[in-house]
Amino acid sequence: MPVYPSENDQNGESNNQGLSDKNQDLLTTACSQLQEGIQQHKEGKLQFAIVSLTESWKKFQLLGDLSKQISKSAQ
């Protein structure tokens, strides 16, 4: 089973220190929607799975775009 980013590591410390609270919430939501979509697919709820996975993908794409902007501004 794939491993997704979590808010805290084994010691309870944040392992996403570079993310703002808003972006951390977006990441958490995207991961939750991804898991939900996978579960819906397994249950044969394909229309619901498509919606969950599409929404998750949009959030991951937005996070990627934000990451690129941050990288460019840091240079």
Task: Write a structural description.
The chain has 75 residues and is mostly helical. It contains two helices and no strands. The protein has helices at 21-42, 46-74. α1 (21-42) runs antiparallel to α2 (46-74). The model has no long low-confidence stretch (mean pLDDT 81).
Strand content: under 5%
String of helices and strands: HH
Total strands: the figure is: 0
**For the report, how would you describe the main beta sheet?**
none
**Shape by Cα distribution:** elongated
Q: Give the termini distance in whole angstroms.
A: 36 Å
Oligomer: single chain
Question: Helicity level, as a percent range?
Answer: 55-70%
Short overview:
By secondary structure, the protein is mainly alpha-helical. 68% of the residues lie in helices and 0% in strands.
SSE layout and pairings?
Layout: H1 21-42, H2 46-74
Task: Looking at this protein, list some descriptive labels.
75 residues, mainly alpha, 0% strand
